[in-house]
Amino acid sequence: MQTLRVDVELGERAYAIHIGAGLLSRAELILPHLDLPRVAVVTNTTVAPLYLDTFSDSLRERGVAVVSVVLEDGERYKDWATLNRIYDALLQQGCDRKTTLIALGGGVVGDLAGFAAATYMRGIPFIQVPTTLLAQVDSSIGGKTGINHPLGKNMIGAFYQPRLVLADTGVLKSLPAREFSAGLAEVIKHGLVRDADFLGWLEQNMEKLLAGDEDSRAHAVRRCCEIKAEVVAEDERETGVRALLNFGHTFGHAIESALGYGTWLHGEAVAAGMVMAADLSRRLGYIQPADVDRIVLLLQRAGLPVAPPDIELARFLELMGTDKKAEGGKLRFILLDAIGNASVRSDVPDTPLWQTLSASHPA
Fold first, then answer.
1. What is the 3-state secondary structure (H, E, C) of 273-297?
2. Catalytic annotation present for 266
3. Active-site entry in 78, 85, 144, 163
4. Is 318 in the active site?
């Protein structure tokens, strides 16, 4: 299978995303980005037995010294205590400013390791090697790093770009079906906010993606990376267009916070949140009922929830208000003007919002 490349254009901090099967063994892609032949690999208890040896051995064969940090797996571990475990390991192993930190895992590992890299000795080199679909198409790209706080998701963190992203699509075969479906939520999101043709392609190829067709999966990862790279190059720190990639997340983060991090996977919460955002877009007259039905059907085909769990409405609103996308006490919503075209709105009236929340919680 051909290796694909997408470039994130950020001037002196530009970097490449390599996409293809078998990249975990391609140490030659990593070597040019190391200041010294020494790396610290951060991974978790699920990924380590599957891929840590393969990845580490490929580097050691090229003369790179490798230390590893294996964390517990799960969103609930994306916190200060786990972050401190990374710092402890780096200090105990004598890692210095020229040690490259590599995140081998999904979004939680990438966010934790990236924040550690941004802050350890005020910044050390960082490489992303995402092993989940969600991380390959979204969280590994663009430099968002951080941890959760009991009062809000991703409220503590930093923008810190990697030097390289290696997306080995072969590892997606080992993902549980639920994890793969959760990643598809972010794939579908990219089409909804930026590329109607890609959304149409997803509708035509959803069964191939679920069945493990490598070419289809590589195409989906590449197109999402292209969209994300374009947006990040235009708006690295989310002051404008990059916020569109948070479609469904204001509702979704509230779901995650209400249930406790990890009860629903991030992509599952985003899927339900996207349906709610689409419903709100319809109530405001931006899209048609048929558009909402189309979104619901595609998410259902992907094996994703299309309604939130039972959360008391006042609590839902309270949690939405703590979302980091709120500004000046006003909620900002990413809404659809059409399939493939989204915008940020901070002027949503209370009535349609309450109608959307109430409709999502039938009596």
1. HHHHHHHHHHHCCCCCHHHHHHHHH
2. yes
3. 144
4. no
